[in-house]
Amino acid sequence: MQKQIDELEKRLHSCKTEVGREVQSLNDELEEIKSDIKELLSIFKATKGFFKTSTWIVKGFLIISAIAAGIIAISKFIKGF
Is this prediction's pTM over 0.70? Predict the structure, then answer.
């Protein structure tokens, strides 16, 4: 009977050790995933800022282009008379 108990204790200890390793492995993978997600979020935030800045730059170019086109049209109109 004691031999069976000892064998069960060995198996239990072995199972606990294996479960502990698996839990540690999962924790390591979760930490890696968290790190990757943080990196992706920082990239998305930077991209969002880039597009916002780009939008303002494009709007500025459109305004300048519209003004230049108006000046050219007015000068052509005046030269036409």
Answer: no
Token pair recorded at residue 19: 């479960």
Structural tokens at position 57: 């730059």
- Position 3, amino acid: K
Interatomic CA distance for residues 18 and 24, integer angstroms = 10
Report the share of the chain in percent with pLDDT over 70: 99
SS3 string of the chain?
CHHHHHHHHHHHHHHHHHHHHHHHHHHHHHHHHHHHHHHHHHHHHHHHHHHHHHHHHHHHHHHHHHHHHHHHHHHHHHHHC
